């Protein structure tokens, strides 16, 4: 009996080794994306035969065989977001156009990254299409899970350039999405940090719209009224919800820096400078002096909820939340909100954190060509414009010039977005695989400073810990 | 030989021939191997590698992961925090559960209804309950601060301050798991023979003497089992902390389990995370053995 047991154990051990080495395998085979034969062909006679004019607003005029994959099925992984809500609501249109059915999952942001990681690692039923974000892109890219979209855009068999109108995407957005000479995703949202403020409250107290950090702090303190549950300022301070990126805007705008990635991929950290310490002190002071109690548990959803309930006077966060605070059904303050660009310290030029959610193809996907149809449809002018009109946001240039759009969302909002966009910098998000780890380190540090610890000491620790992480990486 | 003796016995019964016996337990054994043994073996194998979640090449790194962990201050802080969590929550649950069970031995009005209500926290989904608690803990809108304000006490930060966060989570743990302790103690006490107690009362023993000299010694096996279950369970805690604080503020509630999760899924270091989990596994295993030995509990 013992003999059998020993044999059994040996068998299990062997299996486990097989499994351990196997988990590295899918990446090895996919690090060189093979692509499908049809997609790898370059464009040859895209505009050869002069046919009927292509109207970028009319699907039927596009020189694309929309029914090519009729009856096919693709799998999409979507993050719970106003963009994915808008897409899901239109899936029937896509199916009517192409005959492709979309099997989708919509997952809350806090779990979305993990779910993707598990999907890619297991490789059992990988998604064809997924929402990609810069916070995870370097890690996904390192796994070889991103499909370069350039070949698809240039493929005349799948794409009509006149219809797709690639040049209409905001150049800054395309620049943001590019990674290591590839285009792993198409931008679908345009999110820049802007200032939301309660017009009525500022007026009541005779406060001008803050333009500098000093003015922002002063205004926040004046508006803060804990007795009546009114917070002067809300934003993100919670760990794991992009707080480090948001703080990065303040840090760089005050002349500091965080992590600099060189061309050869190596990275350095330089965060305990006088500017870095000042920025950390300033950012946490906004919450200490004028934020809600327990601000360390405020992510964007809590901040937006506070704004919606009328319990906050000002908020700095992505412009994408405009739809939520202006929705009369869920917001008590719809119509009372004003918008302004991200402030500066009056000395250094403002540098704003931006984010474009992207739609990408997975290199592991089984139906990439059909997936590309989905991407093309979802980012096409008619769909992008309809979504933008609903949500006040988008990544195509023409949207921001659209008259209906301007009339609907107001000049101050569009100006706030454009001014913030003009000075937004992609390098605020460190483009390294270890991004989440260095983010956690700096976010923990901010919590300690918020809790009363000495900023210089904490930032020295943040510097040392981040350096250790980067050393391992290099 | 022992084996033939057993087979003889079975043959004598002539109901369960030996060769079928193995067949009958095979599904259970396979089930255990696949679901319990296999993952642990994979974990052990991974802990000696630099496996990442982002598809880089995997190398055997020997004890490198263990060296890194045992030489990092963070690990000892996380480990200490875990011990504090386990000690505080289990101690409070054992004491509360014991006295509640004792109280319910006395006839109380609406005993059944009260008992059913008490078990509710145990049967509800932990994550859902945690969301409920996180709303109650909200310093601005939560009901707890409102109740405190009725007594003239100012708002407390609960899970938002490094000083109180871990205790607030322990409080939820106590709320959630005391019913389990209560339930086991209750059935243990009900099953006890009445005679020794009656004899002691006749001899003039007081309440505390009864508990110390008769109840505790006779209920010791139950005590050991409950303690072991609770300790192992408390070491595994993840959902409560993840939902209520996510390890924050700062790293005030970052227990080893949270650190393992971060290491594996946020920092992509699967090998490192496996090594950390293995250290905890060994520690909990040794601790359970010690509890069982100390309680002289026969597992047979």
How large is the count of helical segments of chain B? 13
Q: Strands of the largest sheet of chain A, in order across it? A: 2-1-3-11-4
What number of domains of chain A?
Answer: 2
Beta strand % of chain A: 5-15%
Average the pLDDT over all residues of chain B and give the rounded result.
87
Structure description:
The complex is a heterodimer of chains A (474) and B (300). Helices cover 47% and strands 11% of the residues of chain A. Chain A is α+β, with helices and mostly antiparallel strands. Chain A has two domains: 63-184 and 357-394, Periplasmic binding protein-like II (D-Maltodextrin-Binding Protein, domain 2); 195-348 and 422-473, Periplasmic binding protein-like II (D-Maltodextrin-Binding Protein, domain 2, 3-Layer(aba) Sandwich), CATH 3.40.190. Chain A starts with a helix and ends with a helix. Chain B has two domains: 1-47, no CATH class; 64-294, MetI-like fold (Orthogonal Bundle). Chain B has helices at 2-13, 18-47, 64-70, 73-105, 111-123, 126-137, 143-150, 165-190, 195-202, 207-235, 239-244, 256-266, 270-294. Chain B is globular and about 75 Å long. Chain B is built from 13 helices and no strands. The model of chain B has no long low-confidence stretch (mean pLDDT 87). In chain B, 73% of the residues lie in helices and 0% in strands. In chain B, helix 4 runs antiparallel to helix 10 (207-235) and helix 5 (111-123) crosses helix 8. The chains are: A alpha+beta (474), B mainly alpha (300). At the A-B interface, helix 1, helix 2, helix 6, helix 7 and helix 22 of A face helix 2 and helix 12 of B. Chain A: Keywords: Signal. Chain A: Residues 26-57 are annotated as: Disordered. Chain A: Residues 32-51 have a biased composition (Polar residues).
